[in-house]
Amino acid sequence: MQRGRTLSLSFPPFTYWVKRIIIACGVIYFIQLLLQVFTAGGDRAFTLFGALVPAFVLHGFIWQLVTYAFLHAGIWHVLINMLMLWMFGAQLEQDWGPGKFLEFYLFCVVGAALTTIAVAYSPIPGVNPGTPTIGASGGVFGVLIAFGMLYGNQEIFMFPLPFMMKAKYMIGIMIILVIFATIDPRQGGVANFAHLGGLLFGFLYVKFMPRRGVVSGSSERYFSMRNSYYRWKRRRAARKFEVYMRKHDRTVSFDEHGNYIPPDDEHKKNGGSKSGWVN
What we know:
Elements: E1 7-8, H1 16-38, H2 42-50, H3 54-57, H4 64-67, H5 75-96, H6 98-120, H7 137-150, E2 155-157, E3 164-166, H8 167-181, H9 190-208, H10 214-247, E4 253-254, E5 260-261, H11 264-269
Parallel strand pairs: 1-2
Antiparallel strand pairs: 2-3, 4-5
Helix pairs in contact: 1-2, 1-5, 5-6, 5-7, 6-7, 6-9, 7-8, 7-9
């Protein structure tokens, strides 16, 4: 699927990380079911260990910032999340590549978790830092907002309905419907802030992060700074060497990059080579 073409929701590809996230969520949900059937309370212990519990995270359970996104509360919970990830995440991964897509997805998952923790310790009525939150909705909602921002004016065929709709309108409607459909009174609304956190961090990533991703951008910036430092050291060494040679009544020259410039006779001898140093 390409930008500028009509998109179909029928059979998107299973891209590298979309497929692996779906498999991981499916396997973990199957483990939850087995523990529920064959153990007495094992499924609850497993869920509390991996779910996002703000009070636990502040006491060292840092892995919960990610692991909660692989746990789900029921078959429809996991199916709807994975269907939306497949339908909209595959296009993003095709355009961005596997590395940037995984970075984006985890950015939204962790961002949704941090939003949930902040809300859990706020004075909002009904929230509790001991309430567990599970589900991939934070990452999925980040995928939805990114898709709407990048492909907002593209028309999507609403299979099996016989009409098309612009992506930005369809995404907006889906976000509203899913928020209302996933309200769980037992969680006091805390989980819905994870959804909103995913939307917020998905928006921030698309709007402000480097085009090639945070990791790639940081790596490029690091190597650029490192190379600038090495060039400065070479120019500094060249100036010190010039001073040293002048004290011994000899003159040597370097260009603005710190490369040695041979005298004219040496220039001819070396077949026109400008410098004996290689950058």
